[in-house]
Prior knowledge:
This protein is an alpha/beta fold and about 280 residues long. The protein has one domain: BirA Bifunctional Protein, domain 2 (2-Layer Sandwich). About 40% of the residues lie in helices and about 25% in strands. It is built from 11 helices and 12 strands. It has helices at about 15-30, 55-60, 60-65, 105-120, 135-140, 190-195, 200-215, 215-225, 230-245, 255-270, 275; strands at about 1-10, 35-40, 45-50, 70-75, 80-85, 85-95, 125-130, 155-160, 160-165, 165-170, 175-185, 250. Strand 8 (about 155-160) and strand 9 (about 160-165) form a beta hairpin. Helix 1 (about 15-30) crosses helix 10 (about 255-270) and helix 4 crosses helix 9 (about 230-245). The longest helix has 18 residues, at about 105-120. The radius of gyration is 18 Å and the shape is globular. The chain starts with a strand and ends with a helix.
Amino acid sequence: MHTWRWLQSGPGDPAYNMAVDEAILIAHSEGKVPPTLRFYGWKPATLSIGYFQKAEKDIDIPAVREQGLGFVRRATGGRAVLHDSELTYSIIVSEDYPGLPKSVTEAYRVLSQGLLNGFIHLGLDAHMVNLASEEEKAKYDSMGSSACFDSPSWYELVVEGRKIAGSAQMRHRDTVLQHGSILLDLDAKQLFSLLKFRTEALRERLEKSFESKAVAINELLRDRGMPSVTLKQVEAAFHQGIAEGMNVRLEPGELTEEEEELAQQLVKEKYGTDEWNFRR
């Protein structure tokens, strides 16, 4: 059984959160730290966008600022995510890690098994989406909003047909970084107030569609007459689930001094800059 480092970072500034994930990736690629699972949150609540999104086209930046939210572009793909009542995770591991497939979609399957286990530990009947058939693709087809949870991709997790976790992956320096959001609660109205649409009628239609396609843990539990869960309970469930899914021992740790210095540099030169966040 391999041993991975487990970091509990707590809530962090949006630029710092993204910088830390990249700093760990660089340190691991250089053999300086072991494979790492990191749990963290956001302070303030933050809207993040995918690497390929166009901020000025997709996002109502004045609304983001008026609501006192943070804003950052991820180095990974995908669409906009409102990070608030959630557990955010990141996994950093070498591309040649034993048992990790070379293809991106199959690597998602392996790395997401632990997430699936976590939802099961919370009493939810989650499963992975397999988009191999046209019928399955049509079932989860998106109407085209800029919101991440609008529709699942390969091997993302759903409960009763509704997406419950959003993940994104990048590969750099022969290393895989996968991070994502595990929602405790979801405020679709606030999320859609931050996105741009051609008309108000389109916003309302897509928001209604979104609510039928995305769901958070506590909404599902309430629907079943079960008590809501706390962040601490969710952390415990996913700590256990990911350890089981990857068949690893998770050893609590801290960022190294070198990782911390690199993260601060990446905040200053990349994730904290308008050049990065509004580049497209």
